[in-house]
Specification:
84 residues, 0% strand
């Protein structure tokens, strides 16, 4: 898990990028590593179809959040670079 987190968190931003952008990308990498490990262990298995679908929906929401966090961090860096 630690190696996976390091690999996923190995992003390269331009010099001078904000610490916040780095932190957001690091956090997104950690959440992604957790999701990958959780997904590889066993797919969400609920006792009922409704609970299984609810788990799948939560899983997709977390992936969307990871993607949105990365986009927001990169956009912030681009915006800062354009202002400079």
């Amino acid at each position: 898990m630690v190696e996976l987190t390091r690999y996923l968190g190995a992003h390269r931003l331009p010099l001078g990028a904000s610490e916040r952008a780095h932190r957001v990308l690091d956090s997104a990498g950690m959440v992604e590593a957790i999701l990958l490990v959780a997904g590889s262990q066993a797919p969400y298995a609920g006792l009922t179809l409704a609970s299984a679908q609810g788990g799948d929906a939560a899983y997709r929401d977390l992936w969307r959040t990871v993607r949105a966090a990365r986009v927001a961090a990169v956009n912030a860096v681009c915006r800062d670079e354009l202002r400079a």
